[in-house]
Amino acid sequence: MIVDDTPKTRRGAGRVAFHALREAIQGELEAGYTVRMIYERHQEAIPVSYEQFRAYIARDITKTLGSRGGRLKRPSQRKVPG
User: Which InterPro entries match (predicted)?
Assistant: First the structure.
């Protein structure tokens, strides 16, 4: 029998860690640090991929949903014609 001693990361742990450091991350963005620099600084504390880290920043800090920084309305905020 093979025993897996790898510690399991709970689902959502990366999101929780990101939100715990949100103010620090936001301050670093305002100070002019790049997203890549901030990710590398907090990579051990926030167990997510770079792409997911960028998505959290876009959704929760800069409030942008477009891949090029465009401000798009979320589907729930779009007006339905009629």
Answer: DUF5338 (IPR035225)
Full DSSP string of 55-77? HHIIIIIS---STTS-----GGG
pTM of the complete model beyond 0.90: no
Sequence length of the chain is: 82
- Residue 46: pLDDT above 70? yes
Distances (CA, A) of 19 to 37, 70, 81: 18, 23, 36
Q: Which two tokens stand for residue 79?
A: 């007006």
- Tokens standing for 56? 């959290």
- Whether 61 and 25 have beta carbons less than 8 Å apart is answered as yes
Asked if pLDDT for residue 53 goes beyond 60, the answer is: yes
User: Which three-class secondary structure state does DSSP give residue 6?
Assistant: coil
